[in-house]
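[audit] Reproducing an earlier prediction to check determinism. Same input, same settings, fresh worker. If the tokens differ from the archived copy the diff job will pick it up downstream; this log only records the rerun itself.
[audit] input (217 residues):
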Amino acid sequence: MDKKAMYKLSYGLFVLTAKTYKDNGCITNTAIQVTSEPNRIAFAVNKANFTHDMLIETRVFNLSVISEKADFELFKHFGFQSGREVHKFDTFEDYKVSENGLAYITKGCNAYISGEVCETVDLGTHTLFIADVTDMEVLDDAPSATYEYYQSNIKPKPEAIKTGESVGTLEKGETEEGKTVWVCKVCGYVYEGEDLPEDFICPWCKHPASDFEKVVR
């Protein structure tokens, strides 16, 4: 079975933002319009994300549509650190506040959609949120970034580690020649060692060991 077939699905990438005692956001890749009358969208969020818990509590959100102008730093900022541990908007300046009082991302995004959750479905590891759209605005005419575009053009390539370029947690020249590393095929995080534990979970994107590729410099 070729898991890369999943990359051919034409879903996009988004920054989901919510707010309780602070603003927070996470990356999601499952958001679609499900009806036009009433105008409703649906998206899934991993239960491990702090934004998930905030949305369960408040039921109000913004969904910023990531465009092809986005760089990897946007994904690292909102996807590879937890809002339980850091305040993601403390040092982040590329956002504005919409009428619902929530942040939306202005750099590397081409639109945002505001909404209110009207129904949830338990999917085990994720919750599916179905929501009424309350506001929306186009910010830029750049094409939306699909998951395939992210894989091909934004995410660091595992091969870069062979030439000594900066990838994940390793900087140029940090890894000894001939040393084995494991590179996450989803986000580019690097685990250094001959063997990767079978139960290893990527600390950035939370994907399992099966999504890591072995690379020898």
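[audit] rerun output stored. Observation attached for the diff report: The CA atoms of residues 40 and 132 lie 5 Å apart.
[audit] end
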